[in-house]
Amino acid sequence: xxxxxxxxxxxxxxxxxxxxxxxxxxxxxxxxxxxxxxxxxxxxxxxxxxxxxxxxxxxxxxxxxxxxxxxxxxxxxxxxxxxxxxxxxxxxxxxxxxxxxxxxxxxxxxxxxxxxxxxxxxxxxxxxxxxxxxxxxxxxxxxxxxxxxxxxxxxxxxxxxxxxxxxxxxxxxxxxxxxxxxxxxxxxxxxxxxxxxxxxxxxxxxxxxxxxxxxxxxxxxxxxxxxxxxxxxxxxxxxxxxxxxxxxxxxxxxxxxxxxxxxxxxxxxxxxxxxxxxxxxxxxxxxxxxxxxxxxxxxxxxxxxxxxxxxxxxxxxxxxxxxxxxxxxxxxxxxxxxxxxxxxxxxxxxxxxxxxxxxxxxxxxxxxxxxxxxxxxxxxxxxxxxxxxxxxxxxxxxxxxxxxxxxxxxxxxxxxxxxxxxxxxxxxxxxxxxxxxxxxxxxxxxxxxxxxxxxxxxxxxxxxxxxxxxxxxxxxxxxxxxxxxxxxxxxxxxxxxxxxxxxxxxxxxxxxxxxxxxxxxxxxxxxxxxxxxxxxxxxxxxxxxxxxxxxxxxxxxxxxxxxxxxxxxxxxxxxxxxxxxxxxxxxxxxxxxxxxxxxxxxxxxxxxxxxxxxxxxxxxxxxxxxxxxxxxxxxxxxxxxxxxxxxxxxxxxxxxxxxxxxxxxxx
Length: 667
Description:
Layout: H1 3-14, H2 16-31, H3 33-37, E1 41-44, E2 50-53, H4 71-94, E3 97-100, E4 104-107, H5 119-123, H6 135-141, H7 145-156, H8 160-175, H9 187-203, H10 212-228, H11 233-239, H12 242-257, H13 264-282, H14 294-314, H15 325-337, H16 369-380, H17 392-396, E5 418-420, E6 424-428, E7 445-449, E8 452-455, E9 482-484, E10 491-494, E11 497-499, E12 504-511, E13 517-524, E14 532-541, E15 545-554, E16 562-570, E17 575-578, E18 583-588, E19 591-601, E20 607-614, E21 617-621, E22 631-632, E23 640-641, E24 643-651, E25 655-662
Antiparallel strand pairs: 1-2, 3-4, 5-6, 6-7, 7-8, 9-16, 10-11, 12-13, 13-14, 14-15, 15-25, 16-24, 17-18, 18-19, 19-25, 20-21, 20-24, 22-23
Helix pairs in contact: 1-2, 2-11, 4-7, 4-8, 7-8, 7-9, 9-10, 9-12, 10-12, 11-12, 12-13, 12-14, 14-15, 14-16, 15-16
């Protein structure tokens, strides 16, 4: 797309305010103002180490910010097995490894590659990152693993855990002078590290390893981190997403940690102002989050829980979440509506960068119940689930445990695009975008059965990589929906930007009084330039029989022919294919599942073909397999094989695909 056209489209769709804020940030960034504002003087420490200090006045003492839970309460909640798991994870960190993006253990590397330059040089491309994807530098330096060390120390009293934290902290301080190097380039990364420092300062305060000098150094580091955030807050405001919330939470935390610091009042005012405003602007009237990502939705709720806990500890009547609470209530209900009740997992919607900023639980990365249980009790006044090990997060944040409302039904939390039967459920994606879409995924369908994700969202894998993995899994083509003429629903204008936004809506929802069936219908206008509308109807039957109908309907004119491709992404299980009848069967742990596709038009499609792909390799059908097809990314930088099945036909309008799913008899 020509650059001028792109700018005009962005101005129209994102709004002059957001574009103007971003332009203002770029002027400050490139004019030298931000470099001057965040410049530091190097000083020599007494032991000869290079340190940086941007604070002229002595740093006040570090204050606690959270009520800590009773150890007996935690022990009873978790049980011996889960405590042993926690201690094993902490031991892994002591040995020098952490679970990057929540899954695979990798070394804790806190020294950035190459010579260090001012953070602005990385932002404007003057200094190379030294690595293809800066997230691999940032993730260990977030210090998220410090929460695990702290929890383990609190329960065990093992002095190896605070000793490890202080060793890592001092290593980071030496290798990352203030405002120099890639770990200072993103104010969000600075803010998230600040949260971990504040937690560690309180939880390790009773350890003999936490000397007065070390506490003073940690307090100084928190002040330095907080000072980095305001100068570039324009960027976070321009993004109006998780960056703004994270940075505001960092300022709130620093003000609570260092209430006597000369900047504490300013940090608190800035933090609370933009945190509340961010929540009210970023959560829509249905409770969906502006980034249209399940993982970022959880991140937003975790930040709100953290800030809420700080406010309750301080008992401040001036700063609180009162104005944002109705939005948080909607957000908690929305995420709960797409949660699998057996596993706590959710559809892998939108960008998933593996963020888990508040790991106050032994539950795995993909279990959303700890966050939902805490958020439901904090903001809705009732738990989402029966009491269980997923209550650990809420216990750490001292959220009052409420009784489960026995009269509450699942339907009270579900949205019209979530259909639930006894053992199966589905989420039909129908978003009304007001911000920037993360994926071109309108009318994608996620289908679940007995805790298994049957029809899946591929996730993200990598933001920054060489083709074909340059954020490739955002495409319409990889989602469980229809692609027309090999074109995306929206115009991809950059790695993280879609324009000409496709808008969708639920146009009908019905259900039987005896709960024997449910039906939802939605449509989107992403192919309006081609003169057609894509409408999808999902019908769920109590006998575990699901029917998905995709209609391609003419709007303004009827093209002589078009190419329509229906795609389904399935688990990597044993399979058998009846190509003549377009029927695919695959073997789940609970028996064989079948998916059969049929087509209907005024006359038969002139041509059609199918592709059955696993991990970028064609298993059956014709044509060349795209290398990014047949993969699922459960978290950032991880991908595992999946089965991609697509049917492509050259068709007239109107035209209908019907996908019929059958699960094993439950009787």
